[in-house]
Amino acid sequence: SAAGAVAAVDLGATSGRVIVGHVDQSAGRLDLDHVARFPNGPVRMASGLHWDVAGLYRDLTNGLADAFRREPAVASIGVDSWAVDYGLLRGGRLLGEPFHYRDARNEAAVDTVHARVPFAELYRRSGLQFLPFNTVYQLAAEQAGGWLDLADSLLLVPDLIGFQLTGARVAERTNASTTGLVEVATGEWDDELIARLGLPASVFAPLVDPGASVGPLRPEVAADLGAPAGIEVVAVGSHDTASAVVAVPMRAESAAYISCGTWGLVGVELERPVTTDAAREANFTNEGGVDGRVRFLHNVMGLWLLSESVRWWERDGEAIDLPELLAAAASVTGEVAVFDANDPRFLPPGDLPGRIAEWCAEHDVPAPRTRAEFARSIVESLAEAFAGAVRTASVLSGVDVETIHVVGGGALNELLCRRTADRAGIPVLAGPVEATAIGNVLVQARAQGFASGDLESLRALVAQAFAPRRYEPAAR
Ligand code: LFR
């Protein structure tokens, strides 16, 4: 296959980036050029917690313009982001700022939805774990406010960006699988469920698979970006976790993965979904993967616990150095509290150290006192939740886990990787850090003919270009 370059836009909950990937599979080459990085986060407005989509669009298009200046041969653009959130549109115009999934409005909506369709049935149909912010619940809140009556279109965040770039409306399948409205058995919109929930079927866009063309850039956009005419947006695994899993350099039959950023997504890759009662009770999800694979995983709270604690401590203007804090955490001796990292009280933004202390008081565990102890307690609690989720994934799926791959920002956190290996009693292979962008790049590269083969061939290229770092579990 020929060599070439593509541009990946990867939007995370705390930062976004534009990366140009150069791919030459026959030469074993996969390089990333980090073109732009910009902050992201919730904006609290009178109506609740929102995303600043216009600001993100400005930052990512500035990044893309830089990408075309630096690498005029960029052949296509792919966009991925966090899941579940969407914009409502009418006549191509956004009906307000999209809500952030950490907004509190969904609590009442959950009961409304379950009164119409019990959770056990939702799970059988969609295979999706219960998370109070799944799109299906958010839409019940929109419905109650009359917003769905106004909308003629709903686009998940990456599809919304794709629409701004191309004018084409699609629903990329891996991300659509996180709405709760796609049948796990067929990968199609669940029209019967949509009707039973009283949702307007016409707002949902046609589903497309990763690798499909979304469409060429609108001419004004191409001009703004300095891009050659006809450059296309290509659908990738537009759910960031789907792209990350593409780039886990694993042998799926004997590995678990932890895609660790804001969230820690812990699971295995399967050919077929598992929607048993046991899987439902363990709250494991069957999200759509690239090439029809199943991402059988559980959401663990992730580095949010640390980043939001740091943000809380910094609220008076003091700057905290994260590597320093983690070094101090690593030198804490003696027991620290191991709390339930999955407790829903940790979901909303705010005083996380206070809520950790409150959890400890309720469970008769001595709370951490210093910041270093808090950081250590968070790392230990995450490592424990990760190890537990790996065990559960293995039991529920039958995958005999010999290695745990940690990808994403968490792969840089040595203490977390080491303690996860220790607590699981299984070696951890850490990296690549930019797995999501790499998965985005590889799916585009394959669509452009710069790479070929199944996910195993693409993962072989990742393993060659980004050798993982190994953590052996401590002897017990
Ligand atoms: C990770 C992620 C998770 C999803 C959460 C909310 O960035 O996409 O997979 O459950 O964000 O969308």
UniProtKB/TrEMBL annotation:
Gene3D superfamilies: 3.30.420.40. It comes from the Bacteria. One of its GO terms (biological process) is glycerol metabolic process. CDD domains: ASKHA_NBD_FGGY_RhaB-like. GO terms for cellular component: cytosol. GO terms for molecular function: ATP binding; glycerol kinase activity; rhamnulokinase activity. The keyword Nucleotide-binding applies. Pfam families: FGGY_C, FGGY_N. Residues 8-246 form the Carbohydrate kinase FGGY N-terminal domain. Keywords: ATP-binding, Disulfide bond, Kinase, Nucleotide-binding, Rhamnose metabolism, Transferase. Residues 256-447 form the Carbohydrate kinase FGGY C-terminal domain. Belongs to the FGGY kinase family. This is Rhamnulokinase. The lineage of its organism: Bacteria, Bacillati, Actinomycetota, Actinomycetes, Micrococcales.
